[in-house]
Design a protein that fits this description.
Helices cover about 30% and strands about 10% of the residues. It is of the alpha+beta class.
Length: about 60
Amino acid sequence: MTRPKARGRGLIIHDHDCEHVEGGGRELGIEEALDAMLRPGAEACTSCDAAAVLVPMLQLGEGYA
């Protein structure tokens, strides 16, 4: 997963080969990507596999404290 720089809006997490990734991002492991998704305003890109992978993983963790 790749995390580009936030530009006045929340963080957007992309798959490493997403066509919407712009320069300035860095490669994240899956745990780092999940942690980043928990930040306020963060979201997963729906144009690549990021949302399809990360959102269900986060939903599985709901209820476990």
